[in-house]
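hey so i finally got around to running the thing on that chain from the lab meeting. sorry it took forever, my laptop kept dying and i had to restart like 3 times. anyway pasting the input first so we r on the same page abt which one it is
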Amino acid sequence: MAVVHALDDYYLAITLLITIAYQLFFFSIAFSLKFDKLTDFAGGTNFVVLAIITLAFSGHHHARQIVASIFIMLWGARLSGFLLFRIIKTGKDDRFDDKRDKFFSFLGFWVFQMLWVWTVSLPVTILNSPNVTRFDQPDFGTGRDIAGVILFAIGFFMEAWSDIQKYQFRSNPANKGKVCDVGLFVWTRHPNYFGEIIIQFSIFMIAVSPAAYGYVHGGAFSALYASILGAFFLTLLLMFVSGLPLQERPGGKKRYESGNHWESYSSYTKRTSILIPFPPQLYVRMPTILKRTVFLEFPLYVFDPAKHADQSKVQAREAEEGQRQAS
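ok and heres what got predicted. didnt touch it at all, straight out
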């Protein structure tokens, strides 16, 4: 099959335009119909679309291209499928309660989703591009390839299995409001995030092999290494924007103010690593300085009732509980 040269020979422009068009199409449906169910589906499936198109355009189907493309397609398809299933069950997405009726606020989320898809896709996009495929490629099976496959398997298992475990836990009426501390959640408070990060670095490890082993040169060499931006972008996103910052301190604040299993939640955070899996028997004894540095539990995640709680809500709840007990 002939190589398709589309706008630039790294496929950066064509994948950006496809991503913008794809996301705007789903945005128009979501905003017009006030329909939340397609938002995450549009994000995950966009990865699949870009991988298929760039692989088809490349005209060269080396084993490494196929494996890296399939890996990101598997990840995107599983993620979008699970999130679609979950939103169908729950009915709506609370993230958009203050944005759903505001055109520019709602559009802002979709623009950010465009950036997320395009950036995280970079390793596969560049690996499939003509500027890389015009060089000879090392046979698949290098040390980096094998390490990438192993890491992908670990990350994919962690993300998929933890999503299932948490959904099953929350679907049980007997667990309403309780802390999910079963399965992989015994070892880390966010196994799905850790798995997702591992997945992206594993795909980069596979994609960068032609450069690492000296088969590509010049701009292609630099472009392959620069594609690590995708894995770093997703990591920073989960750690400082839309992942842990929205889960940790706000979650603790909500539980403390409402009295919703606060003691068990506080105990859980003390014995369980925030991201990197670690035995809870050891983590609970670990010095705070190590938790705040090596294990990435930065101060911005920590909820301190004295500093962060709305004491008026706590007092109102305690007064209401006192009245119920008295009656």
